[in-house]
């Protein structure tokens, strides 16, 4: 057997667990490392799951007909034709992405930066991913020209790239690649004969309705697999729901057979009660639509307010257009950080912030960027409250950043950043202990 | 990337889906292909899941502390020490087994015959398994002497076996390897430095309390991983619950780190509401214990009655001691089957039974045996009724085989087998159409 090249713990989940341990130990921590959505389950959705608790059969490997049909209709409402027979459901979009990498085979090109798990999943399969830089302000989609160069070079070196992953909208940058860029990416993928795996888990969390993310499935319908789920829209990460839409083409049908085979051998089927509730959610009844709209407004308000704090101390930020993430770059503060805190890498910066201040964030290196980068990914989705009452109030608020508990988190970040950039000597006792 | 050597659909799940299609098309079918347990969810367990529907966070990758503690206590009550910190929960024991193969790395030795998914999972990872015959009447545990030979030969040929899988009690044979055999297997594993992966999902479905399956964790505590789940005990396959107990040793701790890493990258965490319900079940309150006891009695009664039908027409059967499976061998009928039905393989026999009679069963080849074998695996766990009322009555019955709906299935099998072995010409119209 080929030795798995490496097994690493998911950076987001590891950071979450480390923060939970600090909190248990009595420390004050601010969790901005993982993108878990800190909101309660929509009561009607919770009731659907409760009512489905008696469902105990596996059902079809690809998911129930009800869930596949609801997911297909969901995509149709967004302008993408979809055949329920080519929809595959899984226990999260993460396992679907793993199974897709396995089913497609070969090497994979990834945008740089990109979500922590793409490269790690490839690593489990013994694949060294081919990182391709994105265009400025357009995270999630590899620069099409660089993709051509990288894939051509990889093939010349004997490697076998067969797919490219894109994230639309993007995690970690909170940006959205322009439709023209997506179109050029698709042209490149077609020329290079790559399957496009389009992770669109944030597609309903675009702040401006008039400027949605455009899926590569529009431009390369024959080769684009789209994945999404309810984790981000409806804050049910812990339920594990994901769906994949395979292309209605020879490529798509062959891949469907392999994907369902992989699913049958790894997870059998998604949890039946969860499927039942998810099928309801994907039909998008008005209360679901309104809940997602409210959560999108909340993400936008808090993420923008947070971005302003980072910008105020001199970090560079690309305007965010979606998700609950920002990706500030401390490069303009490099000299100060080294002089005052002996910080020369994003990992050291993130470590300092958690150890000295209990601020949990992830360095750009977790997203495939060079260690020297001073970018951090900041997730604001855990700042909406500590109780269901607070979180429900945050969802309903017209001005959520004025709520005392959200304001307190923003003030704390402001205070920490002010301390970080203050021109004074390092505080060894804080850096060592805290 | 190493090309996955093959992607096959799970034989049991594929057979289930094919039977469901036949039923939808109006055919009368008898589902004895997959071991899905056709019983309703224990009402108290269903209520636990319903009450947990609001849980939406990922929680720890390895599973909640409550579930890990409950699982550890479950093992302690069975004489195996267990540390909750070395328990890893997953969405089914199947994904845990896949993740274990990935985490251990190298090649894997498997008993022959063995459950359909071990070899298929290895195939997904590019591993050709090393099949090792079991001792007569002791399925699930490779013959220790043959294991030594096979592993030594594989190493001499440049392969890298690092683990051996055992199934206690066994699927597909319904037998249990003797403690002395398990001990010798453990000695061989220690000499060969193999991790023992012990799939004990049927350990509570042993018919005779006085003769339980003995885990290899007793004899090789430093290197045995035990997996189990609630799928078979409590008929919640569709919920996807599994737990793994890793050894409290250097081997175990290193493997734990890798296993949790793999889990974090493939599935993040098991579904949170399901974990909550599973944690309650693993504490084994009296109603759970009684429910499992009743289902075990039911499995025994129906499986033994079914075995008698197969034995009556001359198939060979090893006495079954656990599970809901029998594994009759039609070898004594080979000449007849070839002359009357042109059947020369288990696959042809299974195909004839489903096409001519709507009887769904699996051939031995699905369990890694040679195609020529005329063994079939017969699962009786779907014969308990078509409604929750019938199934609940079956659980409560002192003589379940006297219930009309169970009796009808047994009678139907008797009739089919009588027709199969009747000395007459093949019925081409039935074989072609049906």
Structure, briefly:
The structure is a homodimer of 434-residue chains. Chain A has 434 residues and is an alpha/beta fold.
Task: Please explain how this structure is put together.
2 copies of one chain form a homodimer. With 434 residues, chain A is α/β, with parallel strands linked by helices. Chain A has 2 domains: 11-31 and 287-423, Aspartate Aminotransferase, domain 1 (Alpha-Beta Complex); 47-283, Type I PLP-dependent aspartate aminotransferase-like (Major domain) (Aspartate Aminotransferase, domain 2, 3-Layer(aba) Sandwich). Chain A is built from 16 helices and 13 strands. Chain A has helices at 11-24, 43-51, 65-76, 93-104, 116-124, 144-156, 179-192, 216-219, 250-266, 272-282, 286-312, 334-341, 346-357, 388-396, 404-421, 428-432, and strands at 30-31, 87-90, 107-112, 130-135, 138-142, 161-167, 195-199, 224-228, 242-245, 325-326, 359-360, 362-363, 376-379. Chain A has an 8-stranded mixed beta sheet, with helices on both faces. Chain A has a 3-stranded antiparallel beta sheet with strand order 10-13-12. In chain A, strand 3, helix 5 and strand 4 (130-135) form a beta-alpha-beta unit. In chain A, helix 2 packs across helix 10 (272-282), helix 4 crosses helix 5 and helix 11 (286-312) packs parallel to helix 15 (404-421). The longest helix of chain A has 27 residues, at 286-312. Chain A is globular. Chain A starts with 10 loop residues before the first helix and ends with a helix. Residues 428-434 of chain A have low confidence and may be disordered. At the A-B interface, helix 1, helix 2, helix 4, helix 5 and helix 9 of A face helix 1, helix 2, helix 4, helix 5 and helix 9 of B.
């Amino acid at each position: 057997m080929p030795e798995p090249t490496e097994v690493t713990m998911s950076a987001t989940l590891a950071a979450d667990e480390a923060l939970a341990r600090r909190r248990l130990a009595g420390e004050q921590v601010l969790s901005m490392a993982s993108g878990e959505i800190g909101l309660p389950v929509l009561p009607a959705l919770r009731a659907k799951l409760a009512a489905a608790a008696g469902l105990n059969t596996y059902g079809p490997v690809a998911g129930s007909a009800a869930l596949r049909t609801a997911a297909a209709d969901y995509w149709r409402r967004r302008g993408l034709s979809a055949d329920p027979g080519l929809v595959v459901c899984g226990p999260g979009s993460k396992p679907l992405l793993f199974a897709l990498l396995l089913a497609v085979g070969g090497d994979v090109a990834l945008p740089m930066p990109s979500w922590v798990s793409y490269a790690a999943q490839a690593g489990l399969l013994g694949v060294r991913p081919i990182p391709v830089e994105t265009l400025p302000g357009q995270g999630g989609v590899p620069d099409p020209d660089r993709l051509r160069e990288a894939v051509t070079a990889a093939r010349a070196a004997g490697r076998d790239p067969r797919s490219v992953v894109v994230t639309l909208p993007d995690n970690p940058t909170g940006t959205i690649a322009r439709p023209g860029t997506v179109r050029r990416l698709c042209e490149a993928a077609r020329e290079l004969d790559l399957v496009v795996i389009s992770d669109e888990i944030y597609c309903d969390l675009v702040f401006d309705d008039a400027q949605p993310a455009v899926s590569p499935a529009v431009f390369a319908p024959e080769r684009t697999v789209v994945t999404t789920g309810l984790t981000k829209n409806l804050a049910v990460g812990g339920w594990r729901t994901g769906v994949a839409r395979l292309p209605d083409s020879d490529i798509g049908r062959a891949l469907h057979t392999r994907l369902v085979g992989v699913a049958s051998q790894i997870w059998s089927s998604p949890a039946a009660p969860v499927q039942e509730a998810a099928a309801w959610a994907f039909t998008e009844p008005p209360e679901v639509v309104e809940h997602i709209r409210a959560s999108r407004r909340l993400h936008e308000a808090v993420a923008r307010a947070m971005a302003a704090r980072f910008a105020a101390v001199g970090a560079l930020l690309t305007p965010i257009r979606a998700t609950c993430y920002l990706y500030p770059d401390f490069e303009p503060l490099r000299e100060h950080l080294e002089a005052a805190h002996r910080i020369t890498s994003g990992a050291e910066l993130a470590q300092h912030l958690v150890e000295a201040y209990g601020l949990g964030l992830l360095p750009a290196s977790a997203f495939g960027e060079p260690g020297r980068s001073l970018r951090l990914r900041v997730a604001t989705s855990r700042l909406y409250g500590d109780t269901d009452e607070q979180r429900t109030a945050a969802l309903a608020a017209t001005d959520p950043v004025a709520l005392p508990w959200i304001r307190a988190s923003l003030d704390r970040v402001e205070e920490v950043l002010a301390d970080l950039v203050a021109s004074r000597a390092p505080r060894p006792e804080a850096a060592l202990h805290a």
